Amino acid sequence: MGQRASGTVALSFDECRVPAENLVGRRGGGYAIALSALGAGRGGIGGLSLGLAEAALSSGLAYARERRAFGKSLTDFQNTQFVLADCRTELDAAWLLVMRAARLLDDGDKAVAETSMAKLFATEACGRVVDRMVQLHGGYGYSRDYAVERIYRDARVTRIYEGTNEIQRLVIARELLRG
Ligand SMILES: Cc1cc2nc3c(=O)[nH]c(=O)nc-3n(C[C@H](O)[C@H](O)[C@H](O)COP(=O)(O)OP(=O)(O)OC[C@H]3O[C@@H](n4cnc5c(N)ncnc54)[C@H](O)[C@@H]3O)c2cc1C
């Protein structure tokens, strides 16, 4: 559907023998190693979502400045201003959550809840921002003439991979209830 520069395939390792010197970690300990990569991965998807949403917002802003309807620039309509204000506010909130998670990871913290919150909020804010920017482009938002059509497709998977957002909610709730 999107992110077409990144190939996605299933890998299978039937009867695959790995020399002992090539073993990563200890035998049987792979699951813990895989889990330890999740924090940085979730922060990364949060960052990726910020990039997509920022690109959509700048594209929408440029289009709204240029496009005239009923003798006015789109930016003269209060509805457009409200949409842009909501996008900027939600994106700034997402930035703060992603930066907090990144800071904690840099400090060696596992930041389990914080990386999940950053991924959850940034990807959902991204979805809302990109959707509004497609709307702001009118019919052009649905055509390949403008970047928002690609960004819309690229953004959708961020709520699915690196742990679906339902799983992020489970993680956040588990951490909250543990305390
Ligand atoms: C483009 C792309 C790239 C990917 N790249 C990678 C990669 O590099 N490495 C990798 O390992 N994987 C990768 N994946 C796989 C991705 O991480 C999984 O698709 C994702 O984690 C969801 O798992 P699933 O597809 O098995 O869905 P399922 O687990 O079958 O989930 C289906 C639905 O049920 C919900 N659900 C499942 N369990 C629960 C529960 N306990 N409570 C509430 N709701 C639940 C899910 O949230 C989802 O909505 C990629 C996927 C895509 C689409």
Description:
The chain has 179 residues and is mostly helical. The chain has one domain (37-178): Butyryl-CoA Dehydrogenase, subunit A, domain 3. 64% of the residues lie in helices and 2% in strands. The chain contains six helices and two strands. Strands 1-2 form a two-stranded antiparallel sheet. Helix 3 runs antiparallel to helix 4. The radius of gyration is 20 Å and the shape is elongated. The model has no long low-confidence stretch (mean pLDDT 96). It binds flavin-adenine dinucleotide. Residues 3, 8, 157, 160-164, 166-167, 170 line the site of flavin-adenine dinucleotide (FAD).
Descriptors:
179 residues, Butyryl-CoA Dehydrogenase, subunit A, domain 3, two-stranded antiparallel ribbon, 6 helices, 2 strands
Brief description of this entry?
This protein is mostly helical and 179 residues long. 64% of the residues lie in helices and 2% in strands.
Topology:
Blueprint: H1 30-36, H2 38-66, E1 68-69, E2 72-73, H3 78-106, H4 112-136, H5 147-156, H6 165-178
Antiparallel strand pairs: 1-2
Helix pairs in contact: 2-3, 2-4, 2-5, 3-4, 4-5, 4-6
Q: Look at the structure and name the CATH superfamily.
A: Butyryl-CoA Dehydrogenase, subunit A, domain 3
Total helices: the number is 6
How would the global form be characterised? elongated
CATH architecture: Up-down Bundle
Sheet-strand content, in percent, reads under 5%
Give the strand order of the largest sheet, numbering strands 1, 2, ... along the chain: 1-2
Mean pLDDT across the residues is 96
The chain-level structural class is mainly alpha
Radius of gyration based on Cα positions? 20 Å
Biggest β-sheet description: 2 strands, antiparallel
Question: Low-confidence runs (pLDDT<50, min 5 residues)?
Answer: none
Q: How many separate domains make up the residues?
A: 1
Ligand species: flavin-adenine dinucleotide
Q: How widely separated are the two ends?
A: 40 Å
What is the highest CATH level, the class? Mainly Alpha
> What is the number of strand segments?
2
The CATH topology turns out to be Butyryl-CoA Dehydrogenase, subunit A, domain 3
Question: What percent of residues adopt helix (DSSP H or I)?
Answer: 55-70%
* H-E string: HHEEHHHH
